[in-house]
């Protein structure tokens, strides 16, 4: 078991890692054509600002019409939905985080203010943040937000507005809770999974959430990440681990993630992709995040989760200084008693 200093460094690494992984990938988020990614940005190794047009953007066929004012979450970004070539994060600056990570800060602030996890307090803050114009400048609002606020606008209680889901971004909110309660793994698991169920329901998300905690919680306590992953692969006790990830380690990353595993956001492929990258780059977190970014697809969702896992394994000091100082908004500091 790591001492308190080591645990604090691992927690700090996990929190900073998820913000770094997201910000690094943000400009090339959901690029599925790797030649287009290289053409527009080159090989991404630093924070960059997004550019329009985005060749793989699906905002031209995306739509959200609020049921009433209670469900209005697009505000002045509504005008860009239905247009071709719009970058999902067009107004964010280099080093700025997507909406999902901004909500992670909101959750951390709630944990601190309430001296622990209070789902009702978080939901009040979440609803206020999403329905108040000007709280963020991200154009894209993911599907789970749209489903949540459709239910909410129709009068469903906030703690009943979750929907059947399968996107890796749902795991991001679990990380601050797991970190806050790292000294009590059972409570960390219980509360992190409860938080996941506020917005992301279903067996796939349960499997994904438990797998993330099976990696993070032992590593917070001092277990080596590679050993933790290899033990999980040997046990085969999670349906998302049915791939020969160890055998694939010598293969090119773009073959593993792109041909064998999709680069898309669905946990069936995105979570095994994170485990593969975490195992392959267990001792080089920066290289792992660069590789993840340049693989495209939902590299921001994968990058946040991968950054947390690699940051927990290696500590805050593993990340380049320019990545740490280049984040436009630093992660909120967890005020727990680790």
Describe this structure in words.
The chain is an all-alpha fold and 338 residues long. It has one domain: ADP-ribosylation/Crystallin J1 (ADP-ribosylglycohydrolase fold), CATH 1.10.4080. 52% of the residues lie in helices and 1% in strands. The chain contains 15 helices and two strands. It has helices at residues 4-25, 34-41, 99-113, 119-131, 143-153, 174-180, 185-199, 203-220, 225-235, 245-248, 253-256, 267-280, 285-295, 299-314, 321-326; strands spanning 163-164, 200-201. The chain has a two-stranded parallel sheet. Helix 1 (4-25) packs parallel to helix 13, helix 1 (4-25) packs antiparallel against helix 14 and helix 6 (174-180) runs parallel beside helix 8 (203-220). The longest helix has 22 residues, at 4-25. The chain is globular and about 50 Å long. The mean pLDDT is 96.
Task: Label this structure with key terms.
single chain; 338 residues; mainly alpha; ADP-ribosylglycohydrolase fold; 15 helices; globular
